[in-house]
Predict the structure.
Amino acid sequence: MNSRRNFLRTAGTAGALLTAATVSRAAQGAVPEAPAQSNPDTQPPLSPRDGRPYNPVVTLNGWTLPWRMNNGWKEFHLVAEPVRRQIAPGMTARLWGYNGQSPGPTIECVEGDKIRIFVTNKLPEHTTAHWHGILLPNGMDGVGGLTQPQIPVGKTFVYEFEMKKSGMFMYHPHADEMVQMAMGMMGFIVVHPKNPALFRVDRDFVFLINAFDIEPGAATPKVNTMTDFNLWCWNSRAFPGIAPLVVRKGDRVRIRFGNLTMTNHPIHMHGYDFAVTCTDGGWVPKSAQWPEVSIDVGVGQMRAFEFVADEPGDWAIHCHKSHHTMNAMGHKVPNMIGVDHRGVAEKIIKLIPDYMAMGERGMAEMGEMQMPLPDNTLPMMSGQGPFGALEMGGMFSVVKVREGLARNDYKDPGWYQHPPGTVAREWTGAAPIAQHAAPEPKRAAQSATPEREWRARKPTAHGNH
Ligand SMILES: [Cu+2]
């Protein structure tokens, strides 16, 4: 559970002691409490209790790190450590993260803030913290060996810099980087504009896109994997573990994400068009924005898009690479579409009683059947919707737009109740006349006259362009 109350109590005491001391030296003497969070549910936005005012973000399946003010400095404490992260119900991974979770907590501050971040290393090897995209003095950039010595095991380093501009950024190690990011070490940073009326939205969601390679039945990622990952996550969660993005009808909504995987992700949202308003380089001027319904986010890039939620419903949001909306195990299944292997299956079952013939009519049946899975393994395609199996995994969630929600209500409202007569339905009138292209030999015979050739092609699926 969130130990924020503990933090506030401790911070209060520490704060009283600290006001008497000088800033930098005091900071080294009394490291702020490091709150931790183990609950993988989306935590409510953390409204600033001191410092400059701002409109807080909501971290999908995550939380924001509380801070303390210390003589004009905003102080945070990150602890790099091994964590257990539930990827979705039924699977928990052994990852590395910060303050109890992977990804680490979101850091929120305001343009102009002077921030001091303590980073304590409780990993079994050295690390650093790099502040992706932030304009800062070179020695604060966190590149192990280049701008600082690595943080040894058990030690704490301090980073101090001023937030020169608003926008969105990330933190991650720049030490044994391939291993530490493959283990889940990363976090989101939001710097709010000094004027809270600027770029204002009603709901502001953030998440990091990350990927792991975890063998079915295992819990620890393989850290030498370069590109062939098998668990496609948002904030170290895979569908159906990714929380819905709950939105009130009429709200102006911003969705921000950063890509720390080793491939690009075209993020697609149904039901709306939107404008890309911010990248990790800064805000996009209005005159440079254009409409999209999918936005590709490259490796090491961040994107934010905005829309007005005027159409209620359950709107899918997902990566458009279809193998990224699946969980592990799919890769070695042969394509049996069109192969009628029912007779063969009977013969094999006599030899191997557990043999399952699957996939001869596509793989949709895998979304419904309960396949025997190793322990701690997610089904390849899963999730139940109001109309049946969702047949999804990985990078998939639902933007739930509802009327009349309270301003800070992010609770899952359940499935959308469609107004009568607004759902696609089976046609129960007269059946259409079956029309098929003539079989090959016959068509060849008919091709003697051009007119018959044309008539033979007419009924195919391409006839309606
Ligand atoms: Cu993707």
Q: What stands out?
A: Residues 330-392 form one domain. The CA atoms of residues 133 and 313 lie 35 Å apart. Residues 232, 265, 319, 321, 324, 395 surround copper (II) ion (CB under 6 Å).
